[in-house]
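We were asked to recover a plausible sequence for a given structure. The inputs and outputs are reproduced exactly as logged, with field labels preserved.

PROBLEM: sequence recovery
POSITIONS: 619
GIVEN STRUCTURE:
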C-alpha cells in the first residue's frame, strides 16, 4: 500500500463494531457451554481462589502483629503463622492446578471458532469468495483466532480477572466502609477517568484494522507464492527472488512503521495511567497517615487499612483495566462474528430442496440475462437469451474475454444475473437450495482442485461412508484411461499427491491430471456436464481426444463445452459464438463455416497453424 492509499484509508469513516462487549462475552460463554462447560466453571473457581489468596495475604500481617501486641503465647503465634501459611499454600496450589487444566478447554473453544471460520469460507456463496470486504473480514477473524494470546482464547483470562477484581472490590469496600467516603470517591473518580482514556486510546488498533489487515494480507500472499513449488521454475528462470524479497521487505517496513505509530499511542496511555495511579495512591496514603496522628490508629489497624487502601485501588483499577481489555478483545470478537454472520446472497438450507435425478431430462434457460461484475463499468454479458435443451451438447466458443466463463458460472449457479433469470426445467434457480443445485453438475474447470490426499480420495471427494464406493471409483479410473498408471504406483489408489506435504507424494502430467478429472466427473455422475476449458494446457490433439472421452461419458446428458480451440467441439449438436458479451453466431460447425463469419475466420486461422504442425502431441 502506497502513502496515498494510506492517507485515503485514514480519512475513511470508521464503522462501529456490530456487537458490544456484553454481547460478545455472552457469545463466548454460549460457545463454551456448547463445547466445554468446564471453561466457565474453572473461570469462577480461579476467581474465588485468587480472591482467597489476596484476602489471606491481607490479613496475615495485621493478625500476627495483633497477636504480638496482645503478648500471645509463642505456641499460639506459631499456630497462627502455620495456619495462614497452610491456607496460602493450599489456595496457591489449587490455583496452579486449576490454571494448568483450564487451558485445555479454552483451546477447545478457540478451535471451535477456527472450525466455524473454515466452515464459513468453505460454504459461503461463491460471490463472497471474490468479495474484498469479506476477505478483509476473514483476515481479521483468522488473526483473532491465530494463537493463545488472541481474543478468542485470552478473553477467559480477562473474564476471570474481572470476576476476581469485582469480588475483591466488594470485600474491600465493606472493609473500608468505616473510612471517609471521599477517599473511596477519589479512587473511583480517578480510575473511571483512566478507564475512558484507555478505552479511547486502546481502540486505536481497531480504528486502523483495515490498514493492518492490508499489510498482513500482502505479506502472507508474497510468502505463500514464494514458497509455492509450482512457481519454482518461473522464480528461477525470471530471477524473481530479488523482486519478491524487495516486495516483502517494502511491505514489512510499512507494517513496522504502522506498528511503531501504534506503540507511541499506547505509551501515552501508560503515562496517563501512571499519573492517575500516583494521584489515587498518594492521597489515600496521606489520609491514613493523618488518621494515625489524629485518631491514634493501632499498628494492626494501620497496617490493615494501609494494605486495604492499596488493595482497593488495585481492585478498582483492575476492574476498569479489565473492562478496557475486554473492550479491545470485544472488537476482535466482533470482527470474528461479522465474518461468520456475513450475509449470503444465495439460499441454502432455507431454499427449496431439489434432488438430482439421472432419469430426468434437464433443460436450462437464460432469459434476458445480463451480468456485470461488482465495480465494473460495463456488462460482461448483455441480454443473453439461450435455451440449453435437455440432452443437448452445446459448445460455447469465442475469443478470450468474450464472456464464455462468466456464462458457465451463471449456468452453474455461482453467480446470479444482474438482470434477467436462469431457469432449470422452467423454474428460477434462485428458489432452490444452491448446494442442492450444484449437485446437478459434473464440472471441470480451468483450475483443478487437486488436494494433498490419496488418489482415491481425490476421485471420490467425500469422507461420507454412505458415498464411498471403491469398486465404482476403480471403474471410473478404468473408463478414464488412468487405471494402468495408478496400478503401477507402489501404493496404487492410496498413493498421495503433493510432495510438499507427503514425502512419497506423486505428481501427474497434464494429460494424466485430465484423466483424473474425468474419473472424478464419472464418479459424481451428475445429470449435467460442464467443461470450462479444462484442457487448455494440452495440445490440440490431446485436447480433442479428451473431449471425445467426455462426449462418450455424456451419453444423452445435457452438456456444455467451452474451448478456445474450435475444432475440439465439432462433435457438439450446437455451437454458439460469443463476442463482446453477445451471442453473435449460432448453429452447427458446418452451418457456421458456411456463414463465413467470425467463427469461420477464427477456425481458418487455427486450422492453418494445426496444418503447419506447430503443435506436438502430448501423451
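RECOVERED SEQUENCE:
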Amino acid at each position: 500500500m502506497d502513502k496515498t492509499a494510506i492517507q485515503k484509508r485514514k480519512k475513511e469513516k470508521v464503522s462501529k463494531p456490530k456487537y458490544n462487549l456484553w454481547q460478545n462475552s455472552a457469545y463466548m460463554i454460549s460457545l463454551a457451554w456448547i463445547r466445554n462447560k468446564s471453561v466457565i466453571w474453572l473461570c469462577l473457581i480461579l476467581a474465588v481462589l485468587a480472591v482467597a489468596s489476596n484476602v489471606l495475604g491481607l490479613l496475615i500481617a495485621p493478625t500476627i502483629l495483633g497477636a504480638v501486641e496482645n503478648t500471645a503465647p509463642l505456641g499460639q503465634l506459631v499456630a497462627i503463622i502455620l495456619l495462614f501459611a497452610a491456607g496460602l499454600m493450599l489456595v496457591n496450589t489449587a490455583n496452579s492446578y486449576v490454571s494448568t487444566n483450564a487451558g485445555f478447554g479454552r483451546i477447545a473453544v478457540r478451535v471451535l471458532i477456527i472450525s466455524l471460520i473454515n466452515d464459513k469460507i468453505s460454504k459461503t456463496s461463491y460471490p463472497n469468495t471474490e468479495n474484498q470486504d469479506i476477505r478483509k473480514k476473514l483476515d481479521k477473524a483468522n488473526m483473532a483466532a491465530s494463537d493463545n494470546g488472541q481474543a478468542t482464547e485470552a478473553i477467559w483470562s480477562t473474564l476471570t480477572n474481572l470476576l476476581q477484581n469485582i469480588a475483591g472490590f466488594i470485600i474491600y469496600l465493606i472493609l473500608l466502609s468505616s473510612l471517609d467516603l471521599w477517599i473511596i470517591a477519589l479512587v473511583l473518580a480517578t480510575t473511571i477517568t483512566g478507564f475512558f482514556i484507555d478505552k479511547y486510546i486502546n481502540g486505536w488498533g481497531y480504528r486502523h484494522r483495515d490498514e493492518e489487515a492490508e499489510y498482513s494480507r500482502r505479506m502472507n500472499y508474497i510468502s505463500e507464492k514464494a514458497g509455492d513449488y509450482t512457481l519454482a521454475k518461473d522464480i528461477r528462470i525470471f530471477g524473481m527472488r530479488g523482486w519478491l524479497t524487495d516486495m516483502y521487505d517494502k511491505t514489512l517496513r510499512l507494517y513496522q512503521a504502522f506498528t511503531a505509530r501504534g506503540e507511541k499511542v499506547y505509551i501515552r496511555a501508560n503515562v496517563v495511567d501512571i499519573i492517575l495511579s500516583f494521584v489515587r495512591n498518594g492521597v489515600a496514603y496521606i489520609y491514613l497517615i493523618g488518621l494515625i496522628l489524629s485518631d491514634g490508629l493501632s499498628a494492626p489497624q494501620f497496617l490493615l487499612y494501609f494494605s486495604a487502601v492499596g488493595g482497593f485501588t488495585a481492585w478498582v483499577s483492575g476492574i476498569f483495566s479489565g473492562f478496557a481489555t475486554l473492550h479491545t478483545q470485544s472488537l476482535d470478537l466482533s470482527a470474528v462474528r461479522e465474518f461468520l454472520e456475513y450475509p449470503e446472497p444465495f439460499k441454502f438450507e432455507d431454499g427449496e430442496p431439489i434432488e438430482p435425478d439421472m432419469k430426468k431430462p434437464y433443460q436450462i434457460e437464460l432469459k434476458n440475462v445480463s451480468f456485470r461484475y461488482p465495480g465494473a463499468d460495463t456488462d460482461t454479458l448483455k441480454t443473453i437469451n439461450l435455451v440449453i435443451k435437455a440432452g443437448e451438447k452445446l459448445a460455447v466458443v469465442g475469443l478470450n474475454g468474450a464472456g464464455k466463463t462468466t456464462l458457465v458460472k451463471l449456468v452453474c449457479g455461482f453467480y446470479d444475473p444482474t438482470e434477467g433469470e436462469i431457469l432449470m426445467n422452467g423454474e428460477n434457480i434462485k428458489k432452490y437450495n444452491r448446494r442442492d443445485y450444484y449437485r446437478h453438475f459434473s464440472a471441470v474447470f480451468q483450475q483443478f482442485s487437486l488436494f494433498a490426499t490419496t488418489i482415491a480420495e481425490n476421485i471420490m471427494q467425500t469422507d461420507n461412508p454412505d458415498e464411498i464406493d471403491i469398486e465404482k471409483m476403480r471403474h471410473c479410473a478404468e473408463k478414464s484411461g488412468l487405471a494402468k498408471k495408478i496400478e503401477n504406483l507402489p501404493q496404487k489408489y492410496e498413493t498421495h499427491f503433493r510432495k510438499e506435504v507427503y514425502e512419497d507424494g506423486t505428481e501427474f502430467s497434464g494429460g494424466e491430471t485430465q484423466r483424473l478429472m474425468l474419473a472424478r466427473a464419472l464418479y459424481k455422475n451428475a445429470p449435467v456436464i460442464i467443461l470450462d476449458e479444462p484442457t487448455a494446457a494440452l495440445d490440440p490433439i490431446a485436447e480433442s481426444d479428451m473431449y471425445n472421452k467426455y462426449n462418450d461419458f455424456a451419453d444423452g446428458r445435457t452438456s456444455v463445452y467451452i474451448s478456445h480451440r474450435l475444432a475440439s467441439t465439432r462433435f457438439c449438436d450446437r455451437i454458439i459464438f460469443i463476442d463482446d458479451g453477445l451471442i453473435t453466431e449460432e448453429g452447427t460447425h458446418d452451418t457456421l463455416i458456411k456463414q463465413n463469419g467470425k467463427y469461420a475466420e477464427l477456425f481458418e486461422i487455427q486450422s492453418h497453424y494445426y496444418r503447419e504442425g506447430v503443435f506436438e502431441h502430448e501423451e
